[in-house]
Amino acid sequence: MAMAENEVREIHVAVGVIFRGGRVLIARRPDHVHQGGLLEFPGGKVESEETVQAALTREIAEETGLEIPPGTLWPVIGIRHDYGDKRVFLDVWRTDQAQGEAHGREGQPIEWMSPESLRDEDFPAANRPIIRALQLPSLLAITGDIGPDEIGIEQLREALVRLPASDRSPLVVLRVPGVAAEVYGSLAESALEVCEAAGAGLVLHGSLAVFDDNPDAAGLHLPWREAEKLEARPIPDGVWLGVSCHSALQIDHAVAIGADYVTLGPVNSTATHPGALVLGWATFRDLVSCAPIPVFGLGGLEPADLDEVQQAGGQGVAGIRYWWPQS
């Protein structure tokens, strides 16, 4: 069937996130092309009858001279973006096994940059979720049952020591359901000092009010009951905004209000909610494949499940039991 006159064809683009020594390979777009002058991750159009992995291997070799060994690419995220005059699907894959020395074979400047130095304004808008994925950790630590005052702070100190080593700064979500606002605010103030001393970022959990009381926190994680009330991003850019989601519609709403990431679950059954309905891996993979922002799997998962989550295109694992001291 012929395309309608005004229909815009979606362009499938393979994008490579190539790591070496903790840095990622970045190129600058030629001035004369679409979005010229901006930075970009290397890659290019997927041709008909070509797999995304084959396209990426070909494009990386053509653009940079690097060779990607078969089987070393892992999915990062898939992003659909409408520029108005064109629609693109960015199919993003990563590797740290590229071989050779990189150089701009098409005359484009290239450099290895730390993920922390990447800025939204230097990239096309569609690339911004990729930047989020590179700057977020693969494990999102959520506090478990936490005591009041100094008891809770000591629990936090003990738990921070148990966090698995990572090449990115850890994020800790301070979840304390059922406490009064003033109790949470006081605990958050002390927890912020403890996390900063340990090199971790503290993400507050609850309504916008908890962030207003502690604006120096690394971010705010909204339960769905709070996120569904909002029509726009409630906190400034530059700090993390997360949303707890359980369905595609909820993920769409999180994207609409400017969330940087979502948690999605429960993937598996948990001891704390034995009768709850679970998504299962197949549904999790389907939902992740349509999510244009990073997704953490939640519910019955451990760091050992990280490979399966990332093979599905997820960011990583969110959880309590793998790091929080059990009573």
What profile does the largest beta sheet have?
Answer: 8 strands, parallel, barrel
The computed structural class is: alpha/beta
Number of helices: 9
CATH hierarchy class name of the largest domain: Alpha Beta
Low-confidence stretches: 1-5
Any idea what the radius of gyration is? 21 Å
The topology string of helices and strands comes to EEEEHEEEHEHEHEHEHEHEHEHE
- Multimer state: single chain
Shape: globular
Mean pLDDT: 92
Number of structural domains:
2
User: Could you tell me how far the N terminus lies from the C terminus, measured between alpha carbons in angstroms?
Assistant: 63 Å
Major β-sheet strand ordering = 8-9-10-11-12-13-14-15
How would you concisely characterize the structure shown here?
This protein has 327 residues and is of the alpha/beta class.
